[in-house]
Amino acid sequence: MNSDIFLPSQVAWATGALAGGPLIRKTTRLTDLPGIFADGEAWRRGNPQQSVYDVDVLGSPAGEGALCVGVTHLHTGNVGDEFFMTRGHFHARREQGEVYFGLRGVGLLLLQTEAGDARLEEVTAGSVHIIPPFTAHRLINTGKETLSSLAVWPVIAGHDYAALAEGFALRVFTSGQGFEVRHG
């Protein structure tokens, strides 16, 4: 019997680098995040070309049942006293969940229901986070190195950023103890 064996795509667990397939990279810069940070004046003073996070996604098949695999690399930094964070979103198809796996760095995963109930989970290398359906999510880097997280989600899930035009219920700021959580 002669069967072909293919080497699948791979992730370097220590860095979050994806390899072995078509890769799409999207960089989100400070200029792409108006209204996201509490201190709008500090955001305006920042370098608009500053990279806040990069998302690398493996090329995936389309259609019902297919999954996307990607890694978010959230850089260290602050806007005012607020840590760098991803834009955050609900899924356009709210019934779709997602899974995050912490790869490197330290941070928080902010989860919020449509009713506005919010909670935080600590993200570290090896942590596993199940994002339930009907739940918005955002990564926040509270550490001193890039926070990288592998995600797996249904292709059909989509992104709904507009539903969070008023922001999340919780915000995370630097403090003498590392970070402080405040209501938005």
Describe the structure.
The chain is mainly beta. The protein has a single domain (23-183), classed as Jelly Rolls. It is built from one helix and 15 strands. The protein has one helix at residues 40-45; strands at residues 10-11, 18-19, 23-29, 51-58, 67-74, 78-79, 82-83, 98-104, 107-113, 118-123, 128-131, 135-141, 147-154, 170-175, 178-183. The protein is globular, with a radius of gyration of 17 Å. The mean pLDDT is 95.
Write out key terms for the chains shown:
184 residues; mainly beta; 6-stranded antiparallel sheet; 3-stranded antiparallel sheet; 1 helix; 15 strands; 3% helix; globular; isomerase activity; RmlC-like_jellyroll
List the topology elements:
Blueprint: E1 10-11, E2 18-19, E3 23-29, H1 40-45, E4 51-58, E5 67-74, E6 78-79, E7 82-83, E8 98-104, E9 107-113, E10 118-123, E11 128-131, E12 135-141, E13 147-154, E14 170-175, E15 178-183
Antiparallel strand pairs: 1-2, 3-4, 4-5, 5-13, 6-7, 8-11, 8-13, 9-10, 9-12, 14-15
EC number: 5.3.1.9
GO molecular function: isomerase activity
Protein name: glucose-6-phosphate isomerase
Summarize the structure.
The chain has 1 helix and 15 strands; from the N terminus they run βββαββββββββββββ. It has one helix at residues 40-45, and strands at 10-11, 18-19, 23-29, 51-58, 67-74, 78-79, 82-83, 98-104, 107-113, 118-123, 128-131, 135-141, 147-154, 170-175, 178-183. The radius of gyration is 17 Å and the shape is globular.
